[in-house]
Amino acid sequence: MNTTEADTFLTEVAFVFPGLFEWVREKSPSPKETIAGWKTSFVSMTIDEARDVLGKWIDGTHQDSPTGFNRERFTSNLWQHVRATRAAARCKEIQAETHRAIGRRDPNVRLPGSESLFRILRDRMSSEPGIKPAAIIDDLYSRAVSEAM
Question: What is the pTM of this model?
Answer without folding.
Answer: 0.65
